[in-house]
Every structure is written in C-alpha cells, then in structure tokens.
Automatic annotation (TrEMBL):
This is GreA/GreB family elongation factor. Residues 123-159 form the Transcription elongation factor GreA/GreB C-terminal domain. It comes from Serpens gallinarum. It holds the Pfam family GreA_GreB. The keyword 4Fe-4S does not apply. Gene3D superfamilies: Transcription elongation factor, GreA/GreB, C-terminal domain.
C-alpha cells in the first residue's frame, strides 16, 4: 500500500493549520499592542491577557512549523517484518470488542484524525502509550496498553 498520499494529506492539513495559527497569532499580537489594550487602572488586565494569548499563539505556530518540517522529512519505508513497526507505519488494530483502529505512527502531529480511503486514520506518536507498545511488533502480534488501572488489548491485523 502506498502511504505517500496519506503523508501528503497530513502535510496539507498541517499547512492549513499553520496558516490559521499564523493568522490567529497576528491578530492576537495586534490586540496585545493596540492602544485599546492599555490598562486604564491597576485592575484592568486586558493588555496582559492579550499578551498571554499572543505568546500562546506564537508557540502554537512554532509547534506546527516543527511538526510540518519533521513530517516532510520523514521517509516512509515499507514494513519490514525483521524490524517490526517503526515510524511511518500505517497499521490496523482490532480491540477485544472487534472494533478496528487505523493508526499512522508519526514523529509529530499526534492526535490528528484524517479521513483516507474512506476510513478514519488517527496519528499517534511513539511517545504515547499505544505508540510505544506497537513499536517493533508485527502482524498477528498482540499489544497491551495500560492506562491507569485499565488494560486495553489489541491485535495487529495489518501493517504497511
């Protein structure tokens, strides 16, 4: 299976998110430096709140830039059963109730959900509990994820 179109879909999503974040950062910065944001008395915190918002938006822009760069530079390789699941793997898991979960293991942008080939694909990071547990696994392997006192089990149905 060719994962390049999925990677391109992710890159387009990150670029769109970056454009929106840059616009929001610009707007927040303009609000923070506007004459209207100047405190009228010691209890007026509009300017301070606007500055905090502008700083947060700027951090979001930088996070998206980094995620975009990392995802652009990742070379997607076909699954190698000798190595097991690695970054760039597209995998399908089945839980104990028979529900299917399609995951794309990426170094950044975890939590984004994409629709690709009529299915939801969730991006996960190798730093997440599920991402850690699938590393090195292959088709037919069982994966166990412990979240607090709860244990969730999956079977790896396919990997590419």
């Amino acid at each position: 299976m060719n994962k390049q179109p999925l990677q391109q879909l992710l890159l387009a999503r990150l670029q769109a998110d970056l454009r929106v974040a840059m616009e929001a950062a610009h707007t927040a910065h303009a609000a923070a430096t506007d004459e209207e944001s100047k405190a009228e008395n010691k209890y007026d915190t509009r300017g301070l709140e606007a500055a905090y918002l502008a700083a947060g938006q700027s951090r979001r822009v930088e996070e998206l830039r980094q995620a975009l760069q990392v995802c652009q530079n990742l070379v997607l390789r076909p699954f190698d059963a000798q190595v097991g699941i690695q970054l760039g793997a597209l995998l399908e898991l089945e839980d104990e109730q028979g529900s299917l979960l399609t995951l794309f293991l990426m170094p950044a942008a975890a939590g984004i959900k994409l629709v690709w080939q009529e299915r939801d694909v969730l991006l996960i990071s190798p730093h997440a509990p599920l991402g850690q547990s699938v590393l090195g696994k292959g088709e037919g392997d069982e994966v166990e994820v412990r979240i607090g006192a709860r244990v969730q089990r999956y079977e790896v149905l396919s990997v590419c």
